[in-house]
Design goal:
The structure is a single chain. It contains nine helices and no strands. It has 232 residues and is an all-alpha fold. The protein has a domain of 136 residues: Tetracycline Repressor, domain 2 (Orthogonal Bundle), CATH 1.10.357. The radius of gyration is 28 Å and the shape is elongated.
């Protein structure tokens, strides 16, 4: 007697005709998203090590384990890819800062926690390290988009600084630019194994700025005029 195999039938349409079985769209979308995330992660690593101008799409494709032509299915150009990488880096830093603020009420302690989280993400991850206070001239066409991504994060920092009790002669905007500028320049001089960790550097910076703010709030002593001796 011949053995028979049970063949799974494809689902039927409303009219009764069978339709070909397909891979679930959710699974396909999940694989595409995972591949895109891998490309972004590997691109960040290449950009950090070799710079934007020194990194080619072939370098990124090789590091991502895909063919160079397949890379263009996800990103039309190296510039478009860098915008995605930079955006992911800004999101990483923002998420780290928001997590660090949980449960902290004091405005200065919130700023200190934010500085520590910012430095940690900036110095301990490739995505964070891609964030830079300056861009090469070859990025001139995409620079407005990069600044737009950065400005979105700065709104969070702006709200933190607006909650501080800054003296009237210390503009919040200048304070914010000094704060972010100092944090974002740390990678230019930071060395692994130094006397301070990234989070300690961030906290130290916030405390220094707090000291300047508090010092400016202290009113100058009012000179006391000597009393005149009464005539006898």
């Amino acid at each position: 007697m011949s053995s028979s195999k049970r063949v799974a039938r494809a689902p039927k349409r409303a009219g009764g005709a069978e339709q070909p079985a397909t891979v679930p769209e959710a699974a396909a979308d999940g694989r595409a998203l995972a591949r895109r995330q891998k490309i972004i992660s590997e691109s960040a690593r290449q950009f950090v090590r070799q710079g934007f101008d020194g990194t080619s799409m072939r370098d990124i494709a090789a590091a991502s384990g895909i063919m160079a032509g397949s890379l263009y299915y996800h990103f039309a150009s190296k510039e478009e890819l860098f915008v995605a990488v930079h955006g992911a880096g800004m999101q990483l830093i923002e998420k780290a800062v928001r997590r660090s603020l949980a449960g902290i009420e004091d405005p200065w302690l919130r700023l200190e926690a934010a500085a520590a989280a910012h430095c940690e993400a900036l110095l301990h991850t490739d995505l964070g390290a891609i964030v830079s206070p300056q861009f090469p001239t070859s990025m001139a066409k995409i620079q407005p988009r990069l600044i737009e991504q950065r400005d979105a994060y700065e709104q969070l920092i702006k709200r933190l600084i607006d909650d501080l009790n800054l003296p009237p002669d210390m503009p919040a905007r200048i304070f914010r630019l000094h704060f972010l500028g100092a944090l974002n320049w740390v990678p230019t001089w930071y060395r692994v194994g130094g006397s301070m960790s990234p989070s300690e550097i961030g906290r130290h910076l916030a405390r220094m700025l707090r000291g300047l703010g508090n010092a400016a709030l202290v009113e100058a002593p009012v000179p006391v005029r000597p009393r005149r001796a009464r005539a006898r």
